[in-house]
Specification:
By secondary structure, the chain is of the alpha/beta class. Helix content is about 55%, strand content about 15%. The chain has helices at about 1-20, 30-40, 45-60, 65-80, 85-110, 125-135, 150-160, 185-190, 225, 240-255, and strands spanning about 115-120, 140-145, 165-170, 190-195, 205-210, 215, 230-235. Strands 1-7-6-5-2-3-4 form a 7-stranded mixed beta sheet, with helices on both faces. α7 (about 150-160) links the parallel β2 (about 140-145) and β3. It is elongated and about 75 Å long. The chain starts with a helix and ends with a helix. Mean pLDDT is about 85; it is low at about 1-25.
């Protein structure tokens, strides 16, 4: 009876989360907590479940308070079951389950130190920061940039695409026709590109790399921005900023695609 009640409560909560705009599929933390709920049903964190949990944890950097929330949730689930009438026989397995969960969290999800770097132009610093992030990217990049016309930056984007990085670009519909624009090269290469298609400008200049690093600032991805303009660029791995800019990218992608 207790197992059926717990299952019913979990399924209802999962349904409620999925119905919410911040539900399971849109909330990485909730996805992990739901995974823990499913795992504890048989009091064992199997090898497959360990690997899945570790894989989820590796997808993004986590703040210390988020890691604490995961551990607290695991402890709370074990404590809830410890109060059941039939808990005595299950306690050794539950303790082992809890130890395995905490071990995976500690080994895989050690919080990254938040780093922020600032660059200014004229000069090569902003351009070098852009190219460095493009070259370091391994899995995915989201580029939301007003105009891209620097050949070296464009070469780094195309190289990332060729090595299997999933590249998506949002750019301004008017700037695509500017002399020197490299947007047509990206489209021809098979990169996913979309435009704002409006009378206003899509004036952002930000990019996200592997869902871990964000660059943002006034710096246009052009030679003139490097050589003569007064520009700035901030690079950070702050997970809150990465998440907020990521959400903005997805919103614009859905709007313009």
């Amino acid at each position: 009876m207790w197992v059926r009640t717990l299952s019913e409560r979990f399924l209802q909560r999962r349904s409620d989360n999925m119905a919410s705009s911040h539900g399971t599929f849109g909330n990485p933390m909730q996805t992990l907590l739901d995974r823990l709920e499913l795992s504890i049903a048989d009091n064992v964190l199997t090898t497959a479940e360990k690997q899945a949990l570790a894989s989820d944890l590796k997808q993004r950097p986590w703040r210390i308070d988020q890691l604490r929330q995961m551990r607290n949730h695991a402890f709370a689930m074990v404590l809830e079951r410890a109060r059941a009438e039939t808990a005595a026989a299950a306690m050794p397995a539950l303790v082992n389950w809890l130890a395995d969960v905490v071990k995976v969290i500690d080994q895989v999800a050690a919080p990254e130190q938040i780093r922020t770097e600032v660059a200014f132009s004229p000069g090569e610093n902003c351009r070098k920061a852009v190219i460095s992030n493009l070259n370091a990217c391994r899995k995915r990049m989201e580029l939301c940039v007003f105009t891209i016309a620097d050949d070296d930056i464009s070469a780094a984007i195309l190289a990332a695409h060729r090595r299997g990085v999933a590249v998506r670009i949002i750019s301004d519909n008017d700037k695509r026709y500017d002399s020197g624009s490299d947007i047509a090269r990206f489209v021809e290469a098979g990169i996913s590109v979309t435009f704002d298609d409006s009378n206003a400008h899509m004036h952002h200049k930000f990019a996200i790399f592997d869902n871990r690093w964000l660059i943002n600032g006034s710096f246009n991805w052009t030679r003139s921005a490097t050589m003569v303009n007064q520009e700035n660029l901030v690079s950070t791995n702050d997970p809150q900023q990465v998440a907020q800019f990521g959400a903005e990218f997805e919103s614009l992608w859905e709007k313009f695609s």
